[in-house]
């Protein structure tokens, strides 16, 4: 199996040395998306209608804050369009990592019911090795593999197990969707029982779970704890997010936290009055600095941690 080279990211434009990523990353975003099951068009980032606004935001963030990398976790059944991702990377100068996997059960595609765990893993491995939808563009991460509730459903467990096997076969890391932050420990148990090391796993949406004990347990296992819905005030206040992040840092686990905004509908775009992809840099990180974070901690949280998660290897400090 052709694993990525050590210390190398697999982006939509090809392989990229992790050490060449000098600015911050967004660890969980969507640039193209279609989760519209109710017909109102809200949970959509259309590759035509919204592309200009997405590209404008990323370009501004590269110019203002040095944004260097976006981990784009739109996978099978979520409206993925890797050609649009390649265009965004090309036009913004920001590297983009594409994903493969299956989201949580309401968004599963028909093969999840039709195939067993090993067959599903083979589907993912083929995309990772051969490229997505005939594009030649290869995923650089598995995600966002999802579940909802405290325990994954049978179908969700099957998908998580398949993702773990594909990660082991290809050398990629795996990011999850834990609905409203719940079920992360159960996800991690399923993945590690399959043999996937915890340090190749990011458990998603933990900033929506006000339980520092769970965060500490995940981090102590070696897994990454994703505070990846920063700015989504309808789900959780940034006050709570900041408190939870500071608690994890103070417990000695700063090297296990990942940060992002999870823009998942066009109403979140700045052009439509939303907080945008830049809320992390423009609003949240200044509050983290005011609480005592120095430049090294900010670099750890926004650059070194996501690069280590993706590659499994440390990168040098800026």
TrEMBL record:
The entry's keywords: Hydrolase, Metal-binding
Record family assignment: Belongs to the metallo-dependent hydrolases superfamily. Phosphotriesterase family.
Name of the protein: Phosphotriesterase
Species of origin: Streptomyces anulatus
Record-linked Gene3D superfamilies: Metal-dependent hydrolases
Keyword Ribosomal protein: no
Domain of life according to the entry: Bacteria
Signal peptide: none
Pfam entry (one): PTE
PANTHER family: PHOSPHOTRIESTERASE-RELATED, PHOSPHOTRIESTERASE-RELATED PROTEIN
UniProt keyword annotation of ATP-binding present: no
């Amino acid at each position: 199996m052709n694993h990525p080279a050590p210390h190398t990211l697999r982006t939509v434009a090809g392989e990229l040395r992790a050490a060449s990523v000098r600015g911050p990353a967004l660890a969980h975003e969507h640039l193209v998306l279609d989760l519209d099951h109710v017909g109102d068009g809200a949970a959509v980032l259309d590759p035509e209608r919204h592309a200009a606004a997405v590209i404008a935001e990323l370009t501004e963030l590269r110019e203002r804050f040095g944004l260097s990398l976006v981990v784009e976790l739109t996978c099978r059944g979520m409206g993925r369009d890797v050609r649009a991702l390649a265009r965004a990377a090309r036009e913004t100068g920001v590297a983009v990592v594409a994903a493969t996997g299956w989201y949580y059960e309401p968004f599963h595609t028909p093969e999840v019911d039709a195939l067993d765990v090993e067959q599903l893993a083979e589907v993912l491995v083929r995309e990772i090795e051969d490229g997505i939808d005939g594009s030649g563009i290869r995923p650089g991460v598995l995600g966002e593999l999802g579940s909802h509730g405290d325990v994954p459903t049978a179908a969700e467990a099957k998908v998580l197990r398949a993702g773990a096997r594909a990660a082991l076969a290809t050398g990629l890391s795996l990011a999850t969707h834990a609905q409203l932050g719940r079920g992360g420990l159960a996800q991690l148990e399923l993945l590690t029982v399959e043999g996937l090391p915890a340090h190749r796993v990011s458990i998603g949406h933990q900033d929506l779970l006000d339980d520092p004990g769970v965060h500490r347990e995940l981090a102590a296992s070696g897994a990454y704890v994703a505070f990846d819905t920063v700015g989504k005030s309808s789900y959780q206040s940034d006050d709570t997010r900041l408190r939870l992040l500071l608690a994890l840092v103070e417990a000695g686990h700063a090297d296990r936290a990942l940060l992002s905004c999870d823009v998942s509908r066009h109403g979140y775009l700045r052009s439509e009055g939303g907080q945008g992809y830049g809320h992390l840099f423009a609003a949240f990180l200044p509050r983290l600095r005011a609480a005592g974070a120095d430049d090294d901690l900010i670099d750890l949280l926004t650059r070194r941690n996501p690069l280590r998660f993706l590659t499994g290897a440390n990168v040098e400090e800026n």
